[in-house]
């Protein structure tokens, strides 16, 4: 296996993002449309939080039955804002962080995605799925 490979080589660069002013209905639509499980929340281009699909499931059973359903029950979502539901204490990494270092962080924490930043600027995201795909390529 290669050593010192940066996460920039496996991260998603065209990141789907939410603004703090967006609502949870939009978040669910983005999760479904893009088949993803983590969305960084930004203010401009600066990351201020992370919303996971699990965060939505904690407050609603709207999607527990049918992931293909186009109509979203917004009743529960209207009771919360993204800021109330998102994770605010983030661990971020730089593009030059090694894949091994990212894997070590994800292996010891209770989350499955790391925002990749240069300063405060969001430039990518790396997930446990990205790490598994990278591992598979090594064989």
UniProtKB/TrEMBL annotation:
The keyword Ribonucleoprotein does not apply. Keywords: CBS domain. Pfam families: CBS. It comes from the Bacteria. Residues 11-69, 86-139 form the CBS domain. InterPro entries: CBS_dom, CBS_dom_sf, Diverse_CBS-Domain. This is CBS domain-containing protein. It comes from Flavobacterium supellecticarium.
């Amino acid at each position: 296996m290669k050593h010192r490979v940066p996460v920039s080589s496996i991260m998603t660069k065209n990141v789907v993002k939410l603004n703090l002013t967006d609502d949870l209905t939009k978040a669910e639509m983005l999760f479904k449309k893009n088949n993803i499980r983590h969305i960084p929340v930004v203010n401009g281009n600066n990351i201020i939080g992370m919303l996971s699909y699990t965060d939505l499931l904690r407050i609603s059973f709207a999607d527990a039955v049918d992931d293909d359903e186009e109509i979203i029950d917004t009743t529960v979502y209207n009771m919360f804002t993204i800021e109330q539901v998102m994770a605010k204490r983030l661990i971020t990494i730089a593009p030059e962080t090694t894949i091994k270092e990212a894997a070590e962080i994800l292996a010891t924490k209770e989350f499955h995605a790391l925002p990749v930043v240069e300063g405060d600027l969001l430039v990518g995201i790396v997930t446990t799925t990205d790490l598994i795909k990278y591992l598979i390529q090594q064989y």
